[in-house]
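User: Predict the structure for this protein chain, please.
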Amino acid sequence: MQNGPARPVELRPPDDTPAGRLRHQLAEARAVRMLAEATGDEQAWLEKLRTEFPRIVAYLRKHRGVEFRGRVLEIGAGACAFSAELSKLPQVVEVVATDVSRRLLEELAPRVFAGLGARADKIVRVPADYHRLGFPDESFDFVVCSAALHEAVDVVGVLREVRRVLKPGGRLVAVREPRPGRWSRERVDRSSSGGVARRLRPYTRAEYEAFFRAAGLRLLGTPSWSGGAWRAYVNGLWEGITRDAFVFVAERPPVRMGIRRSPAPGRRG
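Assistant: Here is the predicted structure, written as structure tokens:
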């Protein structure tokens, strides 16, 4: 079957609160960075995506037992490469790709759909802030994201929204979350964010585990690479998926699970 035209962008009212304006400002700075990367050498950029995301999906299936199906929501989708790859899976009925930046959804996503051979007729692009998703409760079988959680102003708030829109037993799959290096330390960058402070130190595994617990999501399996290079090698893991980045698979429990409402360790000032 040939790809049909991408389904139209659905408009949502913006969040005009001070926190919402801050999030939009950070998102637009991120959009500028992504557009600059894509237009610098578009063919090389697309080739990287064509190589990386099939490997990610293959890794998730082989090593984490993830079989995508049903309705899938991508949050912080950016150029929508993860959505493009998942749309090609026959068990996936629909992919809803969301990002707070309409610019990325409108300008970059169509180029990615064409370059990655996406089933664009199965993808809906929806401008949405992942801190306050505009979808009914229990709407999706899977929620996915790629290098998006660490960009959140309130990580726990995002994860609580994810839990809300997941069906009981549904899963969150988060990939390419940068992990701290040996010499990394927290610092603030204002130059590339229009004067808005942006934390650059990646979260630790312990911090992520606290975020998931606070949001009422249960982590499945080992959320990160461990045990040295030899163990990574024999387990079939590769650099760029697990050595320099976290991979998290979490479940909304099928039965009610208590949610700790405070403190919210993901909130940043």
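The longest helix spans residues 18-40.
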